[in-house]
Amino acid sequence: MREDEAVGGTVGYVVASDPGATLEYSITDGSTDGAFAIDPATGEITTAAALDYLATPSYSLTVAVSDGLLTGTGTIAIAVADVARFEDVPMTHTFYDDIEWLAWKGITKGCNPPHVTHFCPDDSVSRGQMAAFLHRAIGDTLTPGAPVTFSDDDGSIFEADIEWLGSVGVTKGCNPPANDMFCPDDSVTRGQMAAFLHRALGTDGYGDGGEARPLVKPSRSGRFLSVPLDTIRRAWAVERRTSSPPNIMNTANIANERRLWDDRDNDRDRGNRNRHGADGAPHRTP
Ligand SMILES: [Ca+2]
Ligand SMILES: [Ca+2]
């Protein structure tokens, strides 16, 4: 049975014989998530829900047949055949499994809305699309803080995703120090991708503030001083590619660290600010 079989499609018939009796068929087990139905009179088994090879690659249905007095049961094995869901991602594609998984999880909806026939595997990912990917993938794992809005995402199909990304502290914007823009049409650089994933997924104590969401980032506003000393020490070690952070960091060191953090933030975001507005490409649904 192909996984793209239309709901209501015929799987097959269960046939039992009991001369002179009226038989009634039913499925008593194995129809995970209501995937199948059976006609009580004819024994025709049909699909009752969308099938998905990744979700359930096979079923073992228990079918009962009753003549009103006695009931017999049998087992029907149904294999679900994988089908490439995007025309531009055939089964031979290097990333076939990854892209199919992405779609199965609802993280991508394809690249040619309102259709879902193409994924555009060779396109770059825009910052707006990245916001949507992250929102769909881990939206339920982060707690939003104060609402964040940007001035350049108005009307974008990703505006809600972008504002979510800001409210959970995974993006700070693309035009420091104002940071009132997100540059949704810019491509995500590999460096930005690292920052997004670190802020979204990091739980190792470096840079994520442990329980603190949104991410506590040092700034000249003084918030830096609320960062635990241990976090500062780890940052110190990472900046210098050493595994031996100092045991004692005095006030002067802390002040210096704050300057380094600020410089790093500015360096990271400067490129985005300069590129903003260069891309007039239409939005696409990732
Ligand atoms: Ca598939
Ligand atoms: Ca907005």
Outline of this structure?
27% of the residues lie in helices and 12% in strands. The protein is an alpha+beta fold. The protein has 2 domains: 10-79, Sandwich (Immunoglobulin-like), CATH 2.60.40.60; 124-275, no CATH class.
SSE order and pairing:
Blueprint: E1 10-13, E2 24-29, E3 36-38, E4 44-47, E5 58-66, E6 71-79, H1 96-104, H2 127-138, H3 159-167, H4 190-201, H5 229-239, H6 251-275
Antiparallel strand pairs: 1-4, 2-5, 3-4, 5-6
Helix pairs in contact: 2-3
One calcium ion binds next to loops.
Please provide a written account of the structure.
- There is one protein chain.
- The chain has 286 residues and is an alpha+beta fold.
- It has two domains: 70 residues, Immunoglobulin-like, CATH 2.60.40.60; 152 residues, no CATH class.
- Helix content is 27%, strand content 12%.
- It binds calcium ion (2 copies).
- One calcium ion binds next to loops.
- The site of one calcium ion has 5 residues, from loops.
